[in-house]
């Protein structure tokens, strides 16, 4: 069990806090400082956003952070350069989240190889179809020990959920409602869906994302899953801060 | 009038997985999967239903005013030394070919039990065509439009609002058509059950490119019939159309795709020149990638960020191209040319003076290349005149050459 994501879930079953932050945000060279502060403050998992010009599954807050990161000069090339030695100081598992187009242009194999080289543990590519992954890319991801994490939603039926669970490695990313990131929807409406997920006893751990923003929503999600993912609320907390480390510590302390 | 039948197996039509060669597919996040799957599963069955076809046909005839005339443009023919016919999509209700698709999709939406419709629009033609059919059917309509386009296409914004649609400005990214499409897709993610997304062009995830092409294929079906009556032969030597996403071209080419003697000419928006940095000539500047859930050619940076195109025509101002057209380009089935902003303007003034027809700026791009194809005198050429120029009057007046207008 060499993948850090697997090690994490083997050691900790509940209350796992995964924080999303766009790479190269708020400033180009903040990627590592943000990760350092997140680790120090107690985040269990870090999801680094690979900024894209047209992020379909994200709401305005995360899109704006992507636009800003791109303007700062962030790209896959720059990101891998920044991550070159990050494993010397960051031990929590790290997942890259982004969209297929920049990764395709970089080259899937090249991308997987780079991820393995620098010590990235998993990847989320919401617009990569499951079938295409299975037929064209799965072998490459596995060759480099890289976990691909798939999304499920309240509209995903049981049969498809089983198939996604079968292909997903590391964990399954359960989108809490039919929405883009950063949308407020009443969590109680999702209870039935969370119960269904829990009842299915998936082989993968489950992290719930979208709409998680504070202690109450985090705890509610954790009641049904192994943990939760916070993105939009975290971006908001650091976008205009003058002291990144303090803002991050305060944010994490407020959730945990 | 019939919606084109299943053509799986043809080299130039969509395959069972939603691809044209290596282009197409449905690269959608899981949040959109049920919506897209619902369409994929049902669209062919609905389109083939005789009741659906009858309703579609009747509305196209009695409401849109089809068949649109195929007009032999005599003075234009004299100038370019060929037999040039204009397929008059500009005479349709709402002023462009867009309505063929919105009629089809609103009937489909009703059959899927949807109570709300969303759409994206660039120049506003598709937005108006969508707002129109929603008014016709009494269905709620929300149109996403880039905030920059809202400023430059004010008359169409007013039309949509008068028709009862809510026009929502897209303020993200570059604030134009690409961003309006992103916002429409996001709306669909947030409203997966009651909402149908009427995509306006032959792009986006499967089945949209095929579905939109089929609804627009009424254009080529009529061309065949009308040419047979007028010339004794159903096939022209050339079919010419402008291409942004590619819906009018898809419709004009459709029944000729497997007729190798019919040469297909596509004209992209060259903007200020293909290499000027201000262009929308996707086949010339684009690389393989994914835009709006479709694998196709698109304009992007070397890091894979989608770039902002430029065209004087808001309807061609799109950084991608429908997957059918990427395939026609790659296989060489269609010849791709491009016309600059200035060439399109001059072609618009020329058609107006020679034939008394003020064309849309989009359609003018196709007209602009009449002199460059190399026609023989006997050639029969059909140009798809996809829309009329009312919406572009401000641009036309602003750029009017000094020697036109009042002689007083």
From TrEMBL, chain A:
<comment type="subunit">
    <text>Tetramer of two alpha and two beta chains.</text>
</comment>
<keyword id="KW-0057">Aromatic amino acid biosynthesis</keyword>
<feature type="active site" description="Proton acceptor">
    <location>
        <position position="58"/>
    </location>
</feature>
<comment type="function">
    <text>The alpha subunit is responsible for the aldol cleavage of indoleglycerol phosphate to indole and glyceraldehyde 3-phosphate.</text>
</comment>
<dbReference type="InterPro" id="IPR018204">
    <property type="entry name" value="Trp_synthase_alpha_AS"/>
</dbReference>
<dbReference type="GO" id="GO:0004834">
    <property type="term" value="F:tryptophan synthase activity"/>
</dbReference>
<dbReference type="GO" id="GO:0005829">
    <property type="term" value="C:cytosol"/>
</dbReference>
<protein>
    <recommendedName>
        <fullName>Tryptophan synthase alpha chain</fullName>
        <ecNumber>4.2.1.20</ecNumber>
    </recommendedName>
</protein>
<keyword id="KW-0822">Tryptophan biosynthesis</keyword>
<dbReference type="InterPro" id="IPR002028">
    <property type="entry name" value="Trp_synthase_suA"/>
</dbReference>
<dbReference type="InterPro" id="IPR011060">
    <property type="entry name" value="RibuloseP-bd_barrel"/>
</dbReference>
<keyword id="KW-0028">Amino-acid biosynthesis</keyword>
<feature type="active site" description="Proton acceptor">
    <location>
        <position position="47"/>
    </location>
</feature>
<dbReference type="Pfam" id="PF00290">
    <property type="entry name" value="Trp_syntA"/>
</dbReference>
<comment type="similarity">
    <text>Belongs to the TrpA family.</text>
</comment>
<dbReference type="InterPro" id="IPR013785">
    <property type="entry name" value="Aldolase_TIM"/>
</dbReference>
<keyword id="KW-0456">Lyase</keyword>
<comment type="pathway">
    <text>Amino-acid biosynthesis; L-tryptophan biosynthesis; L-tryptophan from chorismate: step 5/5.</text>
</comment>
Automatic annotation (TrEMBL), chain B:
<dbReference type="Pfam" id="PF00291">
    <property type="entry name" value="PALP"/>
</dbReference>
<comment type="similarity">
    <text>Belongs to the TrpB family.</text>
</comment>
<comment type="pathway">
    <text>Amino-acid biosynthesis; L-tryptophan biosynthesis; L-tryptophan from chorismate: step 5/5.</text>
</comment>
<keyword id="KW-0822">Tryptophan biosynthesis</keyword>
<protein>
    <recommendedName>
        <fullName>Tryptophan synthase beta chain</fullName>
        <ecNumber>4.2.1.20</ecNumber>
    </recommendedName>
</protein>
<feature type="domain" description="Tryptophan synthase beta chain-like PALP">
    <location>
        <begin position="65"/>
        <end position="387"/>
    </location>
</feature>
<comment type="function">
    <text>The beta subunit is responsible for the synthesis of L-tryptophan from indole and L-serine.</text>
</comment>
<dbReference type="GO" id="GO:0004834">
    <property type="term" value="F:tryptophan synthase activity"/>
</dbReference>
<dbReference type="InterPro" id="IPR006654">
    <property type="entry name" value="Trp_synth_beta"/>
</dbReference>
<keyword id="KW-0028">Amino-acid biosynthesis</keyword>
<keyword id="KW-0057">Aromatic amino acid biosynthesis</keyword>
<keyword id="KW-0663">Pyridoxal phosphate</keyword>
<dbReference type="GO" id="GO:0005737">
    <property type="term" value="C:cytoplasm"/>
</dbReference>
<dbReference type="InterPro" id="IPR023026">
    <property type="entry name" value="Trp_synth_beta/beta-like"/>
</dbReference>
<keyword id="KW-0456">Lyase</keyword>
<dbReference type="InterPro" id="IPR001926">
    <property type="entry name" value="TrpB-like_PALP"/>
</dbReference>
<dbReference type="InterPro" id="IPR006653">
    <property type="entry name" value="Trp_synth_b_CS"/>
</dbReference>
<feature type="modified residue" description="N6-(pyridoxal phosphate)lysine">
    <location>
        <position position="98"/>
    </location>
</feature>
<comment type="subunit">
    <text>Tetramer of two alpha and two beta chains.</text>
</comment>
<dbReference type="InterPro" id="IPR036052">
    <property type="entry name" value="TrpB-like_PALP_sf"/>
</dbReference>
């Amino acid at each position: 069990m060499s993948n850090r994501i697997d090690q994490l879930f083997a050691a900790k079953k509940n209350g796992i806090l995964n924080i999303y932050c766009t790479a190269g945000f708020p400033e180009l060279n903040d990627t590592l400082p943000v990760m350092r502060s997140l680790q120090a403050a107690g985040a269990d998992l870090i999801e680094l956003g690979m900024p894209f010009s047209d992020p379909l599954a994200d709401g305005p807050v995360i899109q704006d952070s992507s636009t800003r990161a791109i303007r700062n000069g962030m790209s896959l090339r720059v990101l891998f350069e920044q991550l070159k030695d990050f494993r010397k100081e960051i031990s929590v598992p790290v997942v890259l989240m982004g969209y297929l187009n920049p990764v395709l242009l970089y080259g899937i194999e090249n991308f997987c190889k780079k991820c393995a080289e620098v010590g990235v543990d998993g990847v989320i590519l919401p617009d990569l179809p499951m079938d295409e992954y299975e037929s064209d890319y799965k072998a490459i991801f596995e060759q480099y020990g890289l976990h691909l994490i798939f999304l499920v939603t309240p509209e995903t039926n049981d049969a498809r959920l089983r198939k996604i669970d079968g292909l997903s490695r590391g964990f399954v990313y359960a989108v809490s409602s039919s929405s883009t990131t950063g949308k407020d929807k009443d969590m109680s409406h999702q209870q039935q869906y969370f119960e269904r997920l829990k009842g299915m006893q998936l082989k993968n751990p489950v992290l719930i994302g979208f709409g998680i923003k504070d202690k109450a929503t985090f705890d509610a999600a954790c009641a049904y899953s192994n943990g939760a993912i916070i993105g939009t609320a975290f971006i908001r907390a650091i976008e205009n801060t003058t002291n990144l480390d303090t803002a991050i510590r305060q944010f994490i302390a407020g959730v945990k | 009038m019939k919606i084109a039948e299943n053509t799986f197996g043809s080299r130039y039509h969509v395959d069972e997985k939603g691809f044209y060669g290596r282009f197409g597919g449905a690269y959608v996040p899981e949040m959109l999967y049920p919506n897209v799957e619902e369409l994929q599963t049902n669209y062919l069955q609905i389109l083939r239903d005789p009741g659906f076809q009858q309703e579609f046909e009747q509305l196209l005839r009695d409401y849109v005013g089809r068949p649109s005339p195929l007009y032999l443009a005599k003075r234009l023919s004299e100038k370019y030394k060929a037999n040039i016919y204009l397929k008059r999509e500009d005479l349709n209700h709402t002023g462009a070919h867009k309505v063929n698709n919105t009629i089809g999709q609103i009937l489909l939406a009703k059959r899927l039990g949807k109570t709300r419709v969303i759409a994206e629009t660039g120049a506003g033609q598709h937005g108006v065509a969508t707002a129109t059919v929603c008014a016709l059917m009494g269905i709620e309509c929300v149109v996403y439009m880039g905030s920059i386009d809202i400023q430059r296409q004010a008359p169409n914004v007013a039309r949509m609002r008068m028709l009862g649609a809510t026009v929502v400005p897209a303020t993200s990214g570059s604030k134009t058509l690409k961003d309006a499409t992103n916002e429409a897709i996001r709306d669909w993610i947030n409203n997966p059950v009651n909402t149908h997304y009427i995509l306006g062009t032959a792009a986006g995830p499967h089945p949209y490119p095929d579905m939109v092409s089929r609804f627009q294929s009424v254009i080529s079906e009529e061309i065949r019939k009308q040419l047979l009556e007028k010339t004794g032969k159903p096939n022209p030597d050339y079919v010419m159309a402008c291409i942004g996403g590619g819906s009018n071209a898809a419709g004009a080419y459709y029944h000729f795709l497997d007729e190798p003697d019919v040469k297909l000419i596509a004209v992209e928006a060259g903007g200020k020149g293909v290499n000027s940095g201000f262009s929308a000539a996707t086949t010339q500047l684009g690389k393989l990638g994914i835009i709006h859930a479709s694998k196709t050619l698109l304009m992007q940076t070397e890091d894979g960020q989608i770039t902002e195109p430029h065209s004087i025509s808001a309807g061609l101002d799109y950084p991608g191209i429908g997957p059918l057209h990427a395939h026609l380009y790659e296989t060489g089935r269609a010849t791709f040319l491009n016309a600059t902003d200035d060439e399109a303007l001059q072609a618009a003034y020329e058609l107006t003076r020679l034939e008394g027809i003020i064309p849309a700026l989009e359609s003018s791009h196709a007209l602009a290349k009449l002199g460059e194809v190399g026609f023989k005198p006997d050639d029969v050429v059909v140009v798809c005149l996809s829309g009329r120029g009312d919406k572009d009057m401000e641009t036309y007046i602003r750029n009017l050459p000094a020697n036109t207008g009042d002689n007083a």
